[in-house]
Design brief:
mainly alpha, two-stranded antiparallel ribbon, 2 strands, binds iron/sulfur cluster, DUF6171
């Protein structure tokens, strides 16, 4: 299921603040792979967030989270259910 090659980057934030994005990317990198979604799921989630009216400066106005941190975690769900948590017993794609 897991791979040491997971590359979930802070691409939304990178368009706003490169230094902050680099810090966010480091935080994401240090999260246990078991807890993270696979990169394609992550990109799918971030595409949804990028098109969402609640996203302002990389932060979700509905939950107050940096979407890149919220979206990388398997257990997290969008507050509006635009993307949902992945149950523990479901394998990566
Ligand atoms: S987490 Fe949900 S509500 Fe928040 S920006 Fe992303 S899609 Fe929109």
């Amino acid at each position: 299921m897991t791979s040491s090659l997971r590359e979930c980057k802070a691409c939304i934030m990178a368009k706003i603040d490169a230094e902050f994005a680099a810090n966010l990317e480091q935080k994401i990198k240090h999260i246990d792979d078991e807890l993270k979604v696979d990169p394609s799921t992550y990109q799918e989630r971030m595409s949804i967030c990028e098109g969402c009216e609640k996203l302002i400066q990389g932060i979700c106005r509905a939950c107050g989270c940096y979407v890149e941190l919220r979206g990388v975690m398997r257990r997290n769900t969008c507050p509006y259910n635009k993307w949902v948590a992945i149950p523990e017993d479901v394998e990566d794609r």
